[in-house]
Amino acid sequence: MIKGIGMNKFIIGFLVLITQIFVANAQESSLALIPYPWSVEQGTGEFLFTEETIFYLPQSQERDLGAYIQEKLLADQNMKVQVKSGSPKKGEAPAVNFLLTKNKEIEEEGYILSVQPSSIQVEARTAKGLFYAFQTLRQLMPVQPSALARIPSVEIKDHPRFEWRGLMIDVSRHFRSKEFVKKQIDIIAAYKMNKFHWHLTDDQGWRVEIRKYPNLTDKGAWRADRTGVSWWKRTGATAEEPKSVGGFYTQEDIKEVIEFARLRNVEIIPEIDVPGHSKALVSSYPFLSCLDSATFEVAVGGKAPDNALCAGKESTYDFMEEVIGEIAGLFPSQYIHIGGDECNKTNWKKCPHCQAVKEEHGLADEEELQSYFIQRMNKLITANDKKMIAWDEVLSGNGAKGAVIMAWRRGAHSPQLQAPQEGYPTIMTSYTYSYISQVQGPPGMEPEGPKVVLPLSKVYSQEPVPEALSPEQARLIKGTEVCLWSEFTPTAEHTEYMLYPRTIAHAEVAWTVPAQKDWQRFQEIVPTHFQRLEQQKITVSNSLYSIYGSYAYSPLEQTGRVFLETETEGYRMLYTLDGTAPTSGSEQYHGFLTVSLGQEVKAGLFDKEGQLLGEITSLKVRKDNL
């Protein structure tokens, strides 16, 4: 038995140990890092960052990275910091030292970030690694600007899981300005995403200047106004109507955006969607259609019949050779996305040009004719020293060897297996996890959109590598991408609402290894990132705090069993049955509620401080919900 001083020492030691564990856990939980790093080791103490703190960079990085660091710290912390090349001198004030190293244990985009009370040091093999280390350092700083930023002592070793960490925005159906595009590139770069897929053409608009063919933007970039009419209920335009809705990017605009993205280590991949989704293209140059004597108008929404290029006319390939040549010269990316999805082949079956090509080349059907078209596009792209990307429909027919596949379909199709099993490099863009054009909360509480719900938690839960793949096939998974199609996003604010926070959830899917992913941690730190995004005037959605309500009606008892659920953890669902809005003092939901016919249930999600987090859910039990 321990007595006297021995017992006291034991108790004191035990309390110190408990305190250290508590402090370490508290520090770790305070690291609101997205995407979460590969390795995090907490230290003690903190680095005191002020305007007097100097950043030392390799000389090769002083201009680009140095200017970026100064810009961001002025915006984030309202600090004007000094950047120098070289290394800190003895006796100088505490500094931040960025080093390029040949350490082979650090991966190409990886880094080691060491924060000590006396200094901060970053090691990386490449400029990309230094850039991503700075993004982590930004997130270690306080959200609110301060003359003294306290940065916790920590050592972080980090690198991405996938090389492809992408976002696609469709600017064809609703045009977005170059300023808007730059703003989103700036955000995704801060979350270590490195690919911006620019869907530039579709039925509803052609958005990139092609100097050889000015009618593509003179006519193809503009459509008749159907504002206020639901997308799928819109009637087609007449030739006489004014065409006032649209816009396009000049080649100078494109160059400006590309340079902006380069400074943020984001590669811009252009998409020219053919042979389907080409109504704006054939409206501009009708001879590209199978219907020789027809004229067309740019689609306004809804369905767009007669929207495929003719796969049989040689003039189609001559035209596309010029387009691809200009695109290849304009975009420095190693990739050009050619689309290839959802091609309506009805006119091909009736077209003498298409049927003649089928016969000449021994093609069994129109699927093989599409393969013929795509393979010719691939030759044009490779002739310009680029690689072709296409949606997974191009796997049908004879395929498109040499292409990179974006595997989006599921259900009756399994391109996530077929593409890598057939040897194609594959990017996972599953519509069940990655199509963030789908609403993100209870449909009745969200803006208009597809009625399929894709909540934040489901985006976060994605595992891009199917278990059915062999190790060799799994290595063909280049990464993953979220896609925002713009049928239902008519404004910039609505577009951002759909992007965030689901895009940053995807950033963690693409960067963080599965062992380090944790939905509980992620949903607890998201509010910190809401603050960061809102400071940058980004519109965010708080739909993760929505309550989903449903009920089962009993005709025998004429009552309903109401069920409430939410995707978050650790909060209280409070409800009322008298028609009033719930407050922090309302009843807490623990299971189903039995309510009378016509009785209204209102429920909200509250935090520990009694603050309402999202919108109030309201429902009534009715007979007609059978």
Descriptive key words:
single chain, 8-stranded parallel β-barrel, disordered N terminus, TIM Barrel, 17 helices, alpha/beta, 31% helix, Chitobiase, domain 2, 626 residues
Explain what you see:
This protein has 626 residues and is of the alpha/beta class. The chain contains 17 helices and 26 strands. The strands form six sheets. It has an eight-stranded parallel beta barrel, surrounded by six helices. It has a seven-stranded mixed β-sheet with strand order 1-7-5-6-4-2-3, covered by helices on one side. Strands 23-22-25-26 form a four-stranded antiparallel β-sheet, with no helix packed on it. Strand 20 and strand 21 (559-565) form a beta hairpin. Helix 2 (64-77) runs parallel beside helix 3 and helix 8 (314-330) packs across helix 11 (366-383). 44% of the residues are buried. Residues 1-29 have low confidence and may be disordered. Residues 559-611 form the GH29D-like beta-sandwich domain. Its EC number is 3.2.1.52.
Question: TL;DR of this structure?
Answer:
This protein is of the alpha/beta class and 626 residues long.
Number of strands: 26
C-alpha end-to-end distance: 70 Å
Taking the sheet with the most strands, its summary is: 8 strands, parallel, barrel
Strand content: 15-25%
SS field, number of helical segments: 17
Widest β-sheet, arrangement of strands: 8-9-14-15-16-17-18-19
